[in-house]
């Protein structure tokens, strides 16, 4: 997927799909080039987009598999990256920084829409009162006879519960359960200690379990 970004209200520039002059540079060198001068290097930025846009697309798909305008969200992610790349103090953490921008943008948009769609996929199980476990997996796109309305309702409440988490908890658990990042990587991205990351994830899971307990009891 290729995006066209508008650099002003009057001029639209189409990024080259494979900038030859920058394709052999490391990600770190490309970020440095974008941070030099008055404006980010368009060719260097285009190469960063080419390398990382599939990652952004996949993350947004996991967050919003039913949204038809994910391409628009992805373009907005890259606009925000372009506008703020000079502020990135740790260029070596570019990928994680982009992930955080995409995650925050998704929840900003979700709040605006005031609605929920198909649930996101998480891999940490919830525990029911009878000692059983319920995985964070999405229902099949082709529901079987055992997948009924109450199950779908539970997953809708799950997404709403995640949306209602405090920002720090929400971002941390999304990076862990959706992105699959290690605790250490999350600590670097969010700028908090490893202990804080583990605490936020544990507390977020407890909050979700408490909020969803009425639905778990009926499953």
Query: Could you list the spans in which at least 5 consecutive residues all have pLDDT below 50?
Result: 7-13, 115-123, 136-149
Average pLDDT figure: 75
CATH class category label of the largest domain: Mainly Alpha
Largest β sheet strand count, sense and barrel closure: 2 strands, antiparallel
**Any idea what the CATH superfamily of the largest domain is called?**
RNA polymerase sigma factor, region 2, helix turn helix motif
How would you spell out the order of helices and strands? Answer: EEHHHHEEHHHH
**Would you give the CATH topology of the largest domain?**
Rna Polymerase Sigma Factor, Chain: A
- What is the helix fraction of residues, given as a range? 55-70%
Instruction: Please give the radius of gyration in angstroms.
Output: 19 Å
Order of the strands making up the biggest sheet: 1-2
Number of strands: 4
What is the count of DSSP helices, taking H or I runs of 4+ residues? 8
CA-to-CA gap between the ends?
40 Å
Integer count of domains: 2
CATH architecture of the largest domain: Orthogonal Bundle
Q: Would you mind describing this structure in some detail?
A:
The chain is mainly alpha-helical. It folds into two domains: 1-115, Orthogonal Bundle (Rna Polymerase Sigma Factor, Chain: A), CATH 1.10.1740; 117-219, Orthogonal Bundle (Arc Repressor Mutant, subunit A). The protein contains eight helices and four strands, in the order ββααααββαααα. It has helices at residues 27-35, 42-63, 70-84, 94-113, 149-163, 167-177, 183-190, 194-217, and strands spanning 4-6, 12-14, 126-127, 133-134. The protein has a two-stranded antiparallel ribbon. The chain has a two-stranded antiparallel sheet with strand order 3-4. β3 (126-127) and β4 form a beta hairpin. α2 (42-63) packs across α3, α2 crosses α4 and α5 (149-163) packs antiparallel against α8 (194-217). It is globular and about 60 Å long. Residues 7-13, 115-123 and 136-149 have low confidence and may be disordered.
């Amino acid at each position: 997927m290729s995006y066209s970004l508008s650099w002003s209200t009057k001029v639209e520039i189409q990024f080259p799909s494979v900038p030859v002059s920058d394709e052999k540079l490391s990600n770190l060198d490309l970020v440095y080039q974008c941070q030099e001068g008055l404006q980010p290097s368009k060719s260097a930025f285009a190469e960063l987009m080419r390398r990382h846009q599939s990652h952004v697309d996949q993350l947004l798909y996991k967050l919003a598999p039913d949204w038809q305008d994910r391409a628009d969200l992805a373009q907005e992610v890259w606009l925000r990256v372009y506008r703020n790349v000079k502020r990135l103090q740790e260029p070596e953490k570019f990928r994680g920084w982009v992930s955080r921008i995409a995650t925050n943008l998704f929840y900003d948009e979700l709040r605006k829409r005031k609605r929920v769609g198909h649930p996101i996929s998480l891999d940490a199980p919830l525990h029911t009162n009878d000692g059983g476990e319920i995985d964070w997996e999405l229902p099949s796109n082709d529901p079987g006879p055992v997948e009924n309305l109450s199950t779908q309702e539970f997953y809708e409440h799950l997404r709403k519960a995640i949306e209602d988490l405090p920002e720090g908890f929400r971002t941390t658990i999304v990076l862990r359960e959706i992105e699959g990042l290690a605790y250490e990587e999350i600590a670097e991205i969010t700028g908090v200690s490893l202990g804080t990351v583990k605490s936020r994830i544990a507390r977020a899971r407890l909050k979700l379990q408490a909020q969803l307990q009425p639905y778990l009891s009926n499953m």
